[in-house]
Design a protein that fits this description.
The protein is α/β, with parallel strands linked by helices. About 45% of the residues lie in helices and about 15% in strands.
Length: about 375
């Protein structure tokens, strides 16, 4: 039974997972708080992650990436209106805290800071993304100050790019460089600044609006195909919760407060357990066999597959990832790496090589 009281299709993702037990709990728990009077301020509370109806695979993929950032992020592909952006933004309610070094104090000391979701605006310029001259300081104080951009703010956080397939090529190149190197450099005249930028990349796109460049496609760890719900009762529940969120977001958040806190604690515990989680020999063999049988060339396939399997085991409270964990995450990790184009390319190359070898053999025989 799902969290919305609906029977979801039986599949591997729903079996053997403590994580899924939380995602599929029935009803909401918590005390409904008294609504506050309208003060004229915008209410920016995120939609509760656990209140999302269905979409199990999408929620599992996002949670695994939060538990283990080494997976490399998630790409959500599907038509408009299927809840991709809502689901990503709702993660903010269950994101854990991390320990970071605070260099503003002397001597530097450690402090705790919550993981954030940093969104790339649709109208962002290159200066917004990588940083540039602070024009206000230049005009008001008559001095030049180099200011970091969105990529710097995304360091150790989640960088969310909606409609990632519509990004300008210059922005894509900047994100690719930062993602590959973990740092990026801003040059403005004589001023040069280098900033850390290790982030989890999450993107969403509608394939009707255009394809995604292969270079940035390869930077995502997991890929989720997001389809619309098919059951009438489920779609009606989406409408009910969406309406409640628009009319009384605090009331909806209060209803789901307890289970949201449970999930946040589970994520934090899983991140800690992940440090000790290993792969069984059987899981390793199965993963390698899968990659070989699917004729995947990219070495990122095994890395993503095994890191996702470790995260799934940790979410289930285990320090050993088994064949079942690999089985659950394999579609998410491997559909991202298989390339029919490359399979066809290598096949054509083999045919061409066979023709060349046959011709060499015939000419050699004629000369003898």
């Amino acid at each position: 039974m799902s969290d919305d009281g609906l029977n979801l299709p039986e599949n591997d993702v729903q079996k053997h997972s403590r994580l899924l037990e939380i995602l599929n709990q029935s009803g909401a728990r918590g005390v409904l708080q008294k609504p506050r009077s309208d003060m004229g301020f915008a209410d920016l509370l995120p939609f509760p992650f656990l209140a999302i109806v269905g979409q199990v695979e999408m929620r599992v993929a996002l949670l695994l990436t939060v538990i283990n950032p080494s997976i490399g992020g998630v790409l959500l592909i599907g038509p408009r209106g299927t809840g991709k952006t809502t689901c990503v933004r709702s993660l903010s309610g269950i994101l854990p805290e991390m320990e970071i070094e605070d260099f503003t104090s002397d001597p530097p000391k450690m402090r705790w800071e919550r993981v954030k979701i940093v969104e790339l605006p649709l109208n962002a310029r290159l200066e917004d993304v990588v940083g540039g001259i602070n024009e206000r300081v230049a005009i008001q104080q008559n001095r030049i100050k180099l200011e970091a951009g969105i990529l710097s703010r995304a360091h150790r956080n989640i960088l969310y790019v909606d409609e990632v397939n519509l990004l300008d090529d210059t922005l894509v190149d900047a994100i690719l460089d930062a993602s590959a190197q973990g740092t990026f450099t801003v040059r403005r005249g004589a001023m040069v600044g280098t900033f850390d930028s290790r982030f989890v990349l999450v993107g969403s796109m509608n394939p009707e609006e255009g394809r995604l460049r292969p270079q940035i496609m390869d930077r995502f760890g997991l890929r989720v195909i997001v389809k619309g719900l098919t059951e009438a009762e489920a779609r009606l529940e989406v409408y009910r919760r969406g309406r409640e969120y628009r009319e009384a977001p605090r009331d909806l958040a209060a209803k789901w407060a307890d289970i949201t806190q449970d999930t946040k604690e589970l994520v934090a515990a899983a991140r800690e357990l992940l440090k000790e989680t290993e792969l069984s020999e059987e899981a390793v063999r199965m993963g390698l066999d899968l990659v070989n049988e699917l004729q995947i060339d990219s070495a990122r396939a095994e890395f993503t597959l095994f890191e996702a399997a470790r995260a799934h085991a940790a979410a289930d409270g285990r320090d050993l990832a088994t064949v079942q964990d690999v089985r659950v995450v394999a579609p998410l990790a491997l559909r991202q790496r298989r390339s029919q184009f490359m399979l066809d390319f290598f096949k054509r190359q083999e045919e061409e090589d066979s023709q060349i070898r046959a011709l060499v053999t015939r000419i050699t025989s004629d000369e003898e």
